[in-house]
Amino acid sequence: MALDLDRYLASNTIPYYFRALYAGRGLASLPHRRRIARLLRELDGLLTPQTSLADVGTGDSLLTALIAARYGLGQVEGLDRQVALLEIARAHHPGIRYREYDLNRPTPPPGRYDVVLCLETLEHVGDLEAAIDNLLGLPRPGGHLLLSVPIEIGLPGLLKFAVRLRPGGIGFQDLPRTRGLAWRYLLALLTGRRLARFRQPRAHWETHFGFDHRVLEALLAQRGLAPQRFDVASTRFYRLTLSGTAAASANGSSA
To answer: Are 22 and 5 in contact (CB under 8 A)?
Structure first.
């Protein structure tokens, strides 16, 4: 199913910062466009007009609305903790139902869905374990969960480290400013140590510093889950098909 991403962005008036990441065909937008193209290829085998879909971390719903339109979906919900973004989404995409939803708090599922997406969101949550258990409770038995997170270790992590700490870069921001932080973080990247050790408990993270997808994979393994994995540029995707007992097992493991 063909997608004219440029036409979609041009016709969508939503004032979204990340529009610039996808617009055009330069080097800066290439990895983001590749990520969307790979995501849609994956969804081609999962979505029909009858499929119910939840997008957790929908933001202002630019991508959620693209997916809903592409597949002609009639049952779509966008979930996010940021009320201001949900108000923007409601104003621009009234055909989608929106709910305030915080992955950090153990919460009864607002619904059960055939397909659940959580894209580029888990790196921002404060309680990754609670977030995973919440997500596992959202798909219906036999439903699908598709996750994506940034790769912040290895060569991708080193390149991002250099870009973020260059003059004019975003810097560490969220991480506590302790002496020698940059050198200790660089050493962890070079030696393969867990980056999560740099994060202290908090409700939300703005940047990706300290996120380590190996922690996510360990949490999934603890719950007896072995997702399909594939990488696109510096993003890792996970696809799970959940049995009727998966959510119960996950909740039991965190009790």
So the answer is: yes
Return the domain boundaries, the chain: 5-151+212-254, 154-198
Structural contact between residues 71 and 43, judged by C-beta atoms closer than 8 angstroms: yes
CA distance 244 to 15: 40
- Residue 97 CB neighbours (<10 A): 15
- Count the neighbouring beta carbons within 10 Å of the beta carbon of residue 221: 11
CB 93 within 8 A of CB 64: yes
Tokens (6 digits) for 165: 């700490």
* pLDDT band at residue 238 under the 50/70/90 scheme: very high
The tens digit of pLDDT for each residue in 181-213 reads 999 999 999 999 999 999 888 888 888 999 999
Whole-number Å distance between alpha carbons of 92 and 135: 26
Q: Which of the four CATH numbers 3.50.50.60, 3.40.50.150, 1.20.1530.20, 1.10.600.10 does domain 5-151+212-254 have?
A: 3.40.50.150
In eight-state DSSP terms, residue 29 is: T
